[in-house]
Give the backbone structure.
Amino acid sequence: MSQQQLIRCYATQQAFHWFITGMLIPVLILIFQSRELSLTDIGLVMAVWIGTTTLLEIPLGSAADRFGRRKTYLLSLLLSMLGVLALLFASTMTSVLASAILLGAARAVSSGTLDAWFYDAYQLSPGPLSYHDALARINLMVTVGLALGSLVGGGLPDVALHHHQWFESKYDFNLLLIVAATGVLFMVTLTLIPSEAPPLAQQKPSQQQSLLSTCVQALNEAFRHDVLKRVMQTTLVFGVVLSSVENLWQPYLANIMGDDKASTLIYGVISALYFLMAAAASWCSVKGLRWFCGSHRMLLFASRLSAGMVLLLMATTTQVTSFSLAYLVFFFLFTLGENSQMVLVNDNTKVEFRSTMLSISSFVVTCGGMIASLGFGYLSDHFGISASWSVAALLLVVSSFGFIRIPAQMSRTNGVVESGR
């Protein structure tokens, strides 16, 4: 398969995947609140969700390396459908927690599967485009999918108002459609993504390692390698900040609007615009990398530092327009270096445990998310959402200086290839 064909297949599959995710994003916290959960309760649910992913992330990433990336990803779709169905029928805190466990497990199973498959397949495909260029194109499609999904997801509750008697709440229409769409995605994935021989299965029997040995080797590399250990350190704060904003922006906006009967479409529009900004960030990352003479670390430093400053400003907004503008600019800057981060991780990871390493990276993000869900949920209930975001902004600014500590010769597209293996 050529580079262009590979990009088209993977981008189409990922756009559909994230379109489905987008249908839940604008209303997730509102679904929890419709079950009469407080912000502290929601923080606990998100912590359980993220905690389940955290516990299962690394061993299941190793399973993908051993048993096959596509096969493992398809299993995650089945778990996701069960989790969404559980949330659809949940009416108590206990049942919501049960759905969170299923959804967290689904996320852990999918982590590092198709990303690793695409990187390895791309290295064998003929063509002139670098992996960073390919990521920019794919993430553009991913974020367009998220934007469209969010727009649809924000408008669905208004449609459900006409059939409200069929559902526990108007947000349940979103959940029902997500289950159906995930079933379609299962079939699309079988069609677009070819099956592959698991990397560890290709080794000679004498060379094959246990799942535990693979995990230990990858963890050792993640926290000792000159590049990977710096990326993992900053990734923890990335998870804290991402979770604090994602969990709290809907209640913050609701407080600004001050009208419980306001249309939910505004949440969908803002979510859609956010993902379009993320798409623009992915596209602009190619030119941004040129501005920094191919230095991934400097692009990451500048973008995360600027994002922290904008988040601090966002915490002081009191109007829908000013909040929306700050929110969109923040996510543009926050995601501008995401492709560079993926390049640094993949280029410095051996093929035999690439899924495991990507799962470790996702594990670190989820650890940060769990910390934010527990800590910032409590902090927001007692001191306000603005206080939580101010703390998150300061953490982001300080952590951005960690990218400066990455060796300069190992943070460039060409330099990594030469010295990262």
Notes: Residues 3-193+211-419 form a domain with the Growth Hormone; Chain: A; fold (CATH 1.20.1250.20). The chain has a mean pLDDT of 83.
